[in-house]
Design goal:
The protein is of the alpha+beta class and 177 residues long. It contains five helices and five strands. It is 49% helix and 15% strand. The chain has a five-stranded antiparallel β-sheet. This is Protein containing DUF1801.
Length: 177
């Protein structure tokens, strides 16, 4: 009975009801946090430490865009570290500046890092950053440490003595090539 007035009304009502249901489900999918203008989007795939590192990285990108305070930010990050990591980071900072003066100091994911032409070559990850038992000095793919088909890119540090300093200096010289 396509021509009867009742059938047209029911069809229109169903269409309007369906639209309301779609609109209601859309609102549920993008529900906002109470007191916030942003949708409540959380990812169970990132840990709290990883989310904190991503927030730190976003802050670093903003600071780099304004070209101010790279080294000051690095010094401030070192000052925030626990005493054992702070002592290692301060000494490592001096070693890197003397062994590879062409590297510029900056932060990278909230960690002290040293870059050449804007690309991070090496970084220091304090033990407390991700709750490990040792700190790490790591090298990025920009470092020229290639040795055959396999080579180390990170080294654990539990303390920083003369022997470790000599090895780090040699690695830095090789890394900046």
């Amino acid at each position: 009975m396509a021509g009867s007035p009742g059938s047209v009304g029911r069809s229109a009502r169903t269409h309007r009801t369906g639209f309301k249901e779609i609109e209601r489900s859309r609102r549920v999918m993008v529900a906002k946090k109470p007191g916030s203008e942003r949708p409540n989007v959380t990812s169970p795939s990132f840990s709290a430490a990883e989310r904190a590192a991503m927030r730190a990285r976003a802050k670093e990108l903003k600071a780099q865009a304004s070209k101010e305070g790279d080294e000051r930010e690095l010094i401030a990050k070192i000052a925030e570290m626990q005493p054992s990591s702070r002592a290692m980071a301060e000494r490592l900072h001096r070693i890197i500046h003397s062994a590879a003066p062409d590297l510029s100091a900056r932060t990278w994911y909230g960690m002290p890092a040293y870059a050449k032409n804007g690309q991070v070559v090496c970084f220091f990850q304090p033990a407390e950053k991700f709750g490990t038992r040792y700190s790490t000095i790591g090298f990025s793919d920009e470092a020229k440490l290639d040795d055959g088909h396999m080579w180390p890119t990170a080294f654990a540090l539990t303390r920083l003595d003369a022997a470790e300093e000599a090895r780090i200096v040699a690695l830095l010289k090789q890394a900046v090539g």
